[in-house]
Amino acid sequence: MTPQPNPEAGAAVKAADRDHVFHSWSAQELIDPLAVAGAEGSYFWDYDGRRYLDFSSGLVFTNIGYQHPAVVAAIQEQAATMTTFAPAFAVEARSEAARLIAERTPGDLNKIFFTNGGADAVEHAIRMARLHTGRPKVLSAYRSYHGGTQQAVNITGDPRRWASDSGTAGVVHFWAPYLYRSRFYAETEEQECARALEHLETTIAFEGPATVAAIILETIPGTAGIMVPPPGYLAGVRELCDKYGIVFVLDEVMAGFGRTGEWFAADLFDVTPDLLTFAKGVNSGYVPLGGVAISGAIAQTFGKRPYPGGLTYSGHPLACAAAVATINVMAQEGVVENAARLGASVLGPELRELAARHPSVGEVRGVGMFWALELVRNRQTREPLVPYNAAGEANAPMAAFAAAAKAGGLWPFVNMNRTHVVPPCNITEAELKEGLAALDAALSVADEYTE
């Protein structure tokens, strides 16, 4: 893992990218993507030989790091045996991936519908819920992200929805608990939980319970800020869904497969949804794969009634072989346990120590390998370091922080006024401490913008 500088090759890659690649969520003329030459484990490097410790896990998907040899070998073996096959057939890699996933999902979520990623998993979960209930509406939280496709982005509760919000998608947003910036004037977790549940039930009542097909929540919101729900909240949502005959959907696209120190974040709260969406960590992003884990009751709805949905590459053999290998690696190497142990013994305590030293850190929150630092101008007023959805000059403090992290060899995950600490779940303690030292230095730059 010694990067070899090759700036000429890097320049060619960047030139072709500039000429032909259209990047997501970006103003094309205002971006300058890094040309990546290689990656291994918790690191990647550019064509100038600069190496970065990846505290973003790609887009929070490389749960076992880059280029794990067992998964690479499984993909190669599957490619040599059966590169692809249509989804209507029983294929060993697909069947085994479904079995391994179903073994780990909570409750009776024993049927797996495979998709190509998280957004289309959400699309299909919502379709299933509407068909199962015969109802049109979906309730989802502000400060959420569920994907970039049409239905999923309308369900999303952050500014990426705005440009595509049709206003006719049958989506109603509500406030989920977030004590640090409570919408309920709460002072304790207990108050926040009770008032958030009361708000949700009132929303259901005013929308008409008989019109609501599903409530969808990220078990722990990811890109929106890693706000771990207070004890009792998800159980309370489960009770409301049961009371009103509403399908409860948990989005575990980011939080699933070891990220929180459990196979699924739902296990932290002893809650079983009716549908659970997954992607990302299911095979560490090595080949695109997502899916919906389906309860017995909803699966039965389509026992003799065709499910009107499908994908050409549903359960693609290469992706499923990667999932089988990834799940087996995680089990054999104790990856989930590693995330839980280092999250509790190293990452959480040391992030709190950083917060004590840096006035720019307003709050530390998280679990496992899933943490966020909320950066503020003033700890007393909790004014964010940059305004909501800031861009350009208004975002300068966060841009300066990110630049300092990268200069120190750390690749951060930055969103709005937060930096998320989401390294691979199999990261070592030494690597974690290396990254935390670089984060410590970068936070000193953020401190310069505090009052």
What would your notes on this structure say?
With 451 residues, this protein is of the alpha/beta class. 39% of the residues lie in helices and 17% in strands. The protein has helices spanning 7-20, 57-60, 69-81, 92-104, 118-133, 150-155, 189-207, 233-244, 266-269, 296-301, 317-332, 335-357, 396-407, 429-447, and strands at residues 36-40, 43-46, 51-54, 111-115, 137-141, 171-174, 212-218, 247-251, 275-278, 290-294, 361-367, 370-378, 383-384, 410-411, 413-415, 418-421. Strands 4-10-9-8-7-5-6 form a 7-stranded mixed β-sheet, with helices on both faces. Strands 11, 12, 13, 15 and 16 form a 5-stranded antiparallel β-sheet that branches. A hairpin with a 2-residue loop joins β15 and β16. It is globular, with a radius of gyration of 22 Å.
Blueprint (SSEs and pairs):
Elements: H1 7-20, E1 36-40, E2 43-46, E3 51-54, H2 57-60, H3 69-81, H4 92-104, E4 111-115, H5 118-133, E5 137-141, H6 150-155, E6 171-174, H7 189-207, E7 212-218, H8 233-244, E8 247-251, H9 266-269, E9 275-278, E10 290-294, H10 296-301, H11 317-332, H12 335-357, E11 361-367, E12 370-378, E13 383-384, H13 396-407, E14 410-411, E15 413-415, E16 418-421, H14 429-447
Parallel strand pairs: 3-14, 5-6, 5-7, 7-8, 8-9
Antiparallel strand pairs: 1-2, 2-3, 4-10, 9-10, 11-12, 12-13, 12-16, 15-16
Helix pairs in contact: 3-11, 4-11, 7-8, 12-14, 13-14
Defining traits:
alpha/beta; seven-stranded mixed sheet; single chain; five-stranded antiparallel sheet
